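Sequence in, structure out.
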Amino acid sequence: MSFVLKYLPSNSESISDDNTSVEEETTQDISFTINDGTDAIGGATVTIGETSKTTGSAGGCSFTGIAEGSVSVEVSAEGYVTKTETITVDEEHTSFTISLVADTETTNP
């Protein structure tokens, strides 16, 4: 039995032998630093798809195996306005800094 995968996304490499063709998606390991414009925000939640990570005290976290291309990222932290941003992931863009702004309704009731 043989199969051929006909759809070839632009960010993939084709691997084939005699009767098969398998697509391998290009991925990157990426990192984030979350801050308020000046200071790191520890305990922020960074979400890509179904996966969420929490930043450490230095405001950093990382994800492995993220497909190259446009990626939607949501960042939230207590006392700050949640931010959704689209980033472009490729071999030259693997480190991102996202700044949150204070939620004045939460911090100044």
